[in-house]
Amino acid sequence: xxxxxxxxxxxxxxxxxxxxxxxxxxxxxxxxxxxxxxxxxxxxxxxxxxxxxxxxxxxxxxxxxxxxxxxxxxxxxxxxxxxxxxxxxxxxxxxxxxxxxxxxxxxxxxxxxxxxxxxxxxxxxxxxxxxxxxxxxxxxxxxxxxxxxxxxxxxxxxxxxxxxxxxxxxxxxxxxxxxxxxxxxxxxxxxxxxxxxxxxxxxxxxxxxxxxxxxxxxxxxxxxxxxxxxxxxxxxxxxxxxxxxxxxxxxxxxxxxxxxxxxxxxxxxxxxxxxxxxxxxxxxxxxxxxxxxxxxxxxxxxxxxxxxxxxxxxxxxxxxxxxxxxxxxxxxxxxxxxxxxxxxxxxxxxxxxxxxxxxxxxxxxxxxxxxxxxxxxxxxxxxxxxxxxxxxxxxxxxxxxxxxxxxxxxxxxxxxxxxxxxxxxxxxxxxxxxxxx
Length: 437
Hints:
By secondary structure, the protein is of the alpha+beta class. It contains 13 helices and 21 strands. The chain folds into 3 domains: 5-48 and 124-199 and 288-351, FAD/NAD(P)-binding domain (3-Layer(bba) Sandwich), CATH 3.50.50; 98-120 and 204-282, D-Amino Acid Oxidase, Chain A, domain 2, CATH 3.30.9; 355-435, no CATH class. Helices cover 29% and strands 24% of the residues.
């Protein structure tokens, strides 16, 4: 039996679009399916941060994709280069530098993770998706929108995909499938690939994000802002500040009520006095352990569908490129999947077995403290540069004298005067955080 398609790509985010583009350019018959009607519409909170150098986030690790990334800035277009993988893409949207990364307490005390140093760029995801979609279409990929992939079944000759569209359910067939359908991947679930993945914390639900206009703050330009406001939400709470008219506010575990309460806190109320809500968007589901070997039969799972939470935009593009090349090799009788898996395991620090312990310390304060305690701790380290948990650890002797009960609580959670011992498993931290909600 001759398959209609060489490869079906499920999901038209950056990973799926890139995979479709490369596979079609390599001469394969490609079908791209996407549940949305408008592929360029953003329905999930995305700060658009692309880190171009090691960032002082977890002390030793860079979040997400770790391989080199270069930008070429032009007058009519920009180019993003992936030198280790040997490819580049054109990007025609806004590209803005991030120079500061700040952590704020409930009352406005703040710490700098980065200050006055170019550590990354904001790029607009709508423009990124539009460019990749145009390239995939020019290469000959067929696109099927408003189509939800319900599951996959490996067969002797290929893969069957059950989908639901405007005309009901139907079965699509291809020799290979690339699953790029995000953190709640139905393809990965249907193949049993998620059975052994551990949810970190109770449940996997995400939160809500606000896209806002008219925010008034002195920190508006070129700054990424992170809040530690546990009485609003024990989850991560972010403000993506960009050099433009629109900004994003939200994070996992912070629902609409929590965001509204935050916007009315005395220190921040002035920021949002004239703010206008443009729209609400979802946030990523809660973290779970990465998919270590993201392949089953004739299906390769890429991008967020296999990740701890997300691979970020450049990581997704890299996954799409490498996934398409691996699929081509498999179709030619070569071992493309093992090559992809070996690359996947090393190219993302969130796949590092030690990542959860290193990252967990960043959540200790949020997990166990109340607003007043966070204000006290951040007041001790106001305006310093570094990871808040490490800076707090360096002040443990003072905290022991001034706030012995808080000191005992921090020690119990894993904080130590020895900075090298400031470790707490991210999964255990999330469980502890939820126990305080």
